[in-house]
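Regression test attached.
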Amino acid sequence: MFLLLPFDSLIVNLLGISLTVLFTLLLVFIIVPAIFGVSFGIRKLYMKTLLKIFAWATLRMERGAKEKNHQLYKPYTNGIIAKDPTSLEEEIKEIRRSGSSKALDNTPEFELSDIFYFCRKGMETIMDDEVTKRFSAEELESWNLLSRTNYNFQYISLRLTVLWGLGVLIRYCFLLPLRIALAFTGISLLVVGTTVVGYLPHGRFKEFLSKHVHLMCYRICVRALTAIITYHDRKNRPRNGGICVANHTSPIDVIILASDGYYAMVGQVHGGLMGVIQRAMVKACPHVWFERSEVKDRHLVAKRLTEHVQDKSKLPILIFPEGTCINNTSVMMFKKGSFEIGATVYPVAIKMALELLTEALGAHDSRPASRAGEERMGVGTAVAPDAIQVQPFASAGDGNTGSASVCHAHLSWEVQSLCGRAPWGHLCFLMQTYRDDRVSHCLLPELSQALPVYDPQFGDAFWNSSKYGMVAYLLRMMTSWAIVCSVWYLPPMTRETEEDAVQFANRVKSAIARQGGLVDLLWDGGLKREKVKDAFKEEQQKLYSKMIVGSHEDRSRS
Amino acid sequence: MGSRSSHAAIIPEVDTIRQETGFSQACLLRLYHRFQALDRSKKGYLSRMDLQQIGALAVNPLGDRIIDSFFPDGSHQVDFSGFVRVLAHFRPIDDEDASNRDPKQPEPLNSRMNKLRFAFQLYDLDRDGKISRHEMLQVLRLMVGVQVTDEQLESITDRTVQEADDDGDGAVSFLEFAKSLEKMDIEQKMSIRILK
């Protein structure tokens, strides 16, 4: 015991020195650039290096598999089965033609064989359908060195295993503590900074300070997640007196946007840490917080938002009209919400690449965005399990990393309730929507917004919110390689005179979807879900009826 | 790492299933992932609900009948081997099957007769081996919805049953069903090719 003492003090000394060095480095390379909003390009370099390593690892893996004569598990980007896109009518005719000895006439009639069509179609959808198909990380084209994602893991050579181990070491022993320290710094600075600024007298100086405190803290938080964000068209950044409307992809959306602009947040007052942050923030600048009781009153919310927007000196409001509920009871408020207020809307498209919650929302409804335009079931497009109609968009502006992009159809009604349990409901300053039969119909389209496109190259982070809590989720995010995303500021939009709020919301939504290369989901979801399915089914039945009894004109003629 | 350690090994009873269904390992693996994706709560089997959640199936007029075919004899769950066994009916017939077939073995699931039988049982609601006029009417109603009047549908049913019914018992047996479809290219029409 006695002898060990000198070593102990040596260890303590070393630890002290390394901590000092770490914090100095932190200060110089992260916090200082965060304050001035500059970047040394370290993150970009880091990302490029990672991409190169991934590509190399994938190559090695393929080679290894070839040597061992194994078939690599290839991601099925083209679906599981071969299909030819024909319409119901053509296909049934084709079936009849193949079986009929009679000269082919077009007289409508029923054939026993017609059932083959429905039967095969049905089976096809069981084997593979557009929407339910989950795009899970195992379908990544290259391995991202996070073992949790890859099926081909066992073909890895020794060298790759070492590389992987190194990755784990770096991620958990270096990145994680660094990120936690940064997050801690960022949040405490935000609380302290805004509180201090709050005591200053109103005026230019306070505004200036408040803005910079906010920006700085968000930038630190962005670095805490190693988020590599590319902002496009910054000339269109939201201006005062407007509403910034963004698609909602993850709990960190707020941080991503707020680190590049100064917004007024809208949301519900929370307890706990969030509450502390919120209370501090509102002292420094006019955020719009609602009490739990107020949230239910959507007129009040609309009124306060309108007031805020009409004051041209006030900051643009940041809203995610997709909305995620806070919980099952106080679900959603905000009727045709932000689009009814009449303010200029600044759409923003956020496209997450990476390590996000592809599975987090519990639904695995995702499809590669590149598979647009495939018509199914004659009606047009596939119908999600929750009767979301997918209107595919050609994937636009998808030049990020070249790997398949995924869309994630979240926000089904069930999923929304699931989100109620999801912790980020408490993290984000989300607008809630009103759960009311009457309103929901007109309000849902606007909630649906464009959906996130993930490029899960750098991680998988499947966050099953029912399984993992917020801490586990954050841990996964913080131990992944990075979060890469693009933000597009779209030109401001205003409501046309003849347009109603819903149409306007849809227009904004498709603009966002187009820009982000996202799938634009049109849904009249939720409570009307059954009706939707029935309507599509009827469409099929109508088409088929025409085949066996002819259309009405035919009948009247005969 | 021998061939045993390939990924298909994660599938329970993969060899038995392979023999029975004739699917290749790669196909089985694809289907297994699909099965797992459909099995949302990771129960290890699929329930009716799991299949009903497939939107594109829910809009299929015969969706419910198709789902029924996965749950014979009133069972409420289907495991992977049961799931694949149903899907195996839709495996394309390749030449290998025809040449290598052991006459002692039972007919493969994807034979012409089994494909036909699968379609037949979609009509045969009570699984008594006969399509009665009533059953035909019901299935037709599923297919056309409310678009066709009762009289029209009844006359169609009568005509169809009469055409197929050889022995005049007012119902269509499987043999009669197969006979009336004998010219049909079932092999192709009831096949789904799984991508490699």
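Expected vs. actual: identical. Strands of chain B lie at 46-47, 77-78, 130-132, 171-173.
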